[in-house]
Amino acid sequence: MPRPRTRLRRGPGAAAPAERAPRVGFVSLGCPKALVDSERILTQLRAEGYEVAPTYEAADLVVVNTCGFIDAAVDESLDAIGEALEHNGRVIVTGCLGARPERILERHPRVLKVTGPHAYEDVVGAVHEHLPPRHDPFLDLLPPEGVRLTPRHYAYLKIAEGCNNRCSFCIIPSMRGRLASRRIDEVLREAERLVAAGVKELLVISQDTSAYGADLRYAPGAWRGTSYQTRFVDLARGLAELGAWVRLHYVYPYPHVDEVIPLMAARRVLPYLDVPFQHGSPTVLRRMRRPAHSENTLARIRAWRAQCPDLTIRSTFIVGFPGETDSEFAQLLAWLDEAELDRVGCFKYSPVAGAAANALPDHVAPELQEQRYARFMERAAAISRRRLAQRVGRHLRVLVDAVADGTATARSEADAPQIDGVVRIANAGTLRPGDWAEVRIVAADDYDLTGRLA
Ligand code: SF4
To answer: Which helix (H) or strand (E) holds 246?
Structure first.
């Protein structure tokens, strides 16, 4: 799972609050979904006249948005709270770990308040309580796209909260609740505002993007004079009207996903699918209680690629799941060889407090998990190397993320920010972040490409 973080620096002390607008520091941990929560909280606070402080010392109070996905993320969140307490002292905690306040208060009894995931009003209420807003109507003026933590040229578009699945290794549904989709007209209007503000790439996220709208019974909504339903395929059709790159994350291989492939083949949305397959063995998938575990995923991938040969498929996997036998692991490697996925991430299974998988028998020893992880990553790197080598000599359109020392770091349609590879351009010339460029690919390694301006 991608894990962007927004941290605070240390810096010089602040003036007294009475002399200026109140300042909130923000530390955002966890996945892009948590990042979007942070953006919403910050947007609300900015709308009320708060400023965002760049350092602990410049902040009158710090909000830490935590992650509780796996135990390592819990530890990182607890450390981040400790750091904020040490350097600022006035800390409000929110996010996934906030669903387990006892874990936080046991280690950090000094925090001012703990609120749970997607409890925007509670967080904002806690800020009001401990740092009242100053009345200044001019500070209510906000950019129309709200406050964002991503660079100006790309933005995450969160279409739903929660999840109706019950994967045995995951506690997100118990923390974030059941699927709650946003209406399609609201989502399309937000996307339109983002693009009008300069966003060139929209990254669609939720816990289960393919289930979008099921909870609303696919309610209709009008946008730009056309009627759309709150459902996955209509969302892709609507977003395609905006002329931006549209990238779909967290899609499960259900049959209805096939309907979006023609839009990808026509480049109306990016030919990119992020499908968290997690394993290639049907018996392991059943123990994981994965959505769509009974689908013939290899046949589905073949059919997608037949219609859209440039399709990039990204996925994540778990090795060493409880009970994973040698032959199930071998099935995973064979599946991977046949699927030839472009981008692959892998986790070694680790128990999460409260997850059903903890009770499964035959947990895999850490040394064996390590070996399987190394074998899996070696195999995935070889596939990635082979597939990237096929791009050498091709001309690609790329979006520039950063420029330093005359070299630009950019991404092609096959690369999502932060989690996939990049295209390096040595002769960057006058390129700047957010620019489009046409490059000829001159070299490839395991994960990245090198290009020259065409
Ligand atoms: S689909 Fe599974 S892993 Fe993803 S949030 Fe839902 S329960 Fe968790």
So the answer is: strand 245-248
Q: Which of 1, 33, 170 to mutate to test the pocket of ligand 1 (most atoms within 8 A of CB)?
A: 170
Q: Which of 48, 53, 178, 83 is nearest to 93 (CA)?
A: 83
The model carries a pTM of 0.75
State the sign of the Cα–Cα–Cα–Cα dihedral 213, 218, 221, 226.
positive
Centroid of ligand 1 to alpha carbon of 250 (angstroms):
10
Express each pLDDT in 78-119 by its tens digit.
Answer: 999 999 999 999 999 998 888 888 889 999 999 999 988 767
**Adjacency order of strands within the sheet including 91-95:** 51-53, 23-28, 61-66, 91-95, 113-114
Q: Which atom from ligand 1 is nearest to the alpha carbon of 207?
A: 5
The torsion angles phi and psi of 408, rounded to 5 degrees, stand at -100, 140
**155 forms bridges with which residues in the sheet?**
202
Distance between alpha carbon 255 and the CA centroid of its chain, in Å? 24
pLDDT tens digits along 52-85: 898 998 999 999 998 877 777 788 889 999 999 9
Q: Which amino acid is at 91?
A: V
| Beta strand ranges found along 113-233 (DSSP E) | 113-114, 154-158, 160-161, 180-181, 201-205, 220-223, 226-229
Interatomic CA distance for residues 56 and 87, integer angstroms: 6
Sort strands 226-229 and 245-248 into parallel, antiparallel or unpaired: unpaired
